[in-house]
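Hi R.,

Here are the chain sequences for the assembly we discussed:
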Amino acid sequence: MSWKKRVAEAAVARLPTYSRALDELDRKGVEIISSDELGEKVGYSAAQIRKDLSCFGEFGKVGTGYYVKDLKEAISQILGIDRAWNVALVGAGNLGSALLAYPGFRERGFRIVAVFDNDLRKIGKKWENVILQDISEMPEKIKEQGIQIGIIAVPAKVAQQIADMLVLSGIRAILNFAPARIVVPDGVELRAADLSRELERLSYFLTNEAAIRTEALQKGKVAGGEEDKTRESHHYRQDW
Amino acid sequence: MSWKKRVAEAAVARLPTYSRALDELDRKGVEIISSDELGEKVGYSAAQIRKDLSCFGEFGKVGTGYYVKDLKEAISQILGIDRAWNVALVGAGNLGSALLAYPGFRERGFRIVAVFDNDLRKIGKKWENVILQDISEMPEKIKEQGIQIGIIAVPAKVAQQIADMLVLSGIRAILNFAPARIVVPDGVELRAADLSRELERLSYFLTNEAAIRTEALQKGKVAGGEEDKTRESHHYRQDW
DNA sequence: GTATGTGAAGTAATTCACAGCT
DNA sequence: AGCTGTGAATTACTTCACATAC
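And here is the predicted structure of the full complex:
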């Protein structure tokens, strides 16, 4: 598929959010939604949403809005999540095993079908229906199963080696949870998911809040004493 | 602290990366580094690094570069990670328990000192040296310990309720791992860490790769047959 | 000579505002 | 009347290029 205009990377980054919101709307039986209402729901402006979607085509009905089912389907296709992806996970430590057990990936169509580690005590064990395999089997198994996406959940100091192995195995996209920069060749897509980084940004905010808020006020971005209806308290206990 | 010029949010987002690289350089005994060399290491341009740092002051020595120890220290202060932060975690399911056990947070100064869940079978258990507490105790305990940062690791459908509770408890910054948008009042900082989103962006890349690469080629951003020395393969096994 | 810090230029992202369709 | 899709305007971010300092 080739799009009608240059696709803004920032627009792509927002599509998953739209996708989730539309899924929920669809589950609730909402059939049509305007960019205004969708914007309210996802936290972006209506103009932003319309601009983002316009990169990929025209999905709305002027004067009416968007058909939820159609738009949901269209975005799934654009993102390529109208199918299931097999994923390889490397590292079955704390984080790796949590990612393996995390239901959120499967819910969005990403199935971890192979897990590799170098801890001989773990090899051969079956976790979450997947047998842990020795790292040395990785290239073969990944090729065998035609896996295209790899998740790195190993310590920082070996992350690059693992990335190299994944690339040699034919992996074409990597999600790196190790807190280290890794380098991959052109043609392999890389995303970093460094969990501490976001906490550090929060720390920055807390440390510099006074200055930040002063600046924001000067730009009129901080709502003064304005009431926000979404902020009412809820009851506290509920099954989850 | 108030900075000499408007601070670009994008610059703040890169500081943790610089911080990590400088830590490593310092451990290796490197004393001085130029923006060129640091850029090489972190994957940003030298100009980018200098511009970023210039938001916060002048840290370099013209004609020489940056003293690693000094810059490292300065960035720690800017980010507010020259101290330890106590953090509350809500949700002790798959993801929550992994985050609790994840050593990366503590390494960067974030200590999870309170964990809340609503599963009565878990309450009172001690995991990673922290006793799991009932969700109803949250407001009291958070106030008691003066915790300012909260991590949400509960299912999407209760994420907003938990966020509301955290806010009522006096939390000032939230890291949300639930795949749902939550809303918080002004003065509370929120970051989303939706693990599936990044996989979906990778899926987009794999699905639209041909078109993306064509476009990049037209802009001359894809290296043709150029050799990259960093891409040599390494030996495969190593303790981790 | 060498490398920073920074205006200026260039590029990308977001918001505005409205023509045009239903 | 209501809402999309989109050029134009604005704002944010990145790269360039060089004066300045060591």
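The radius of gyration of chain B is 22 Å. The mean pLDDT of chain B is 91.

Let me know if anything looks off.

Best,
T.
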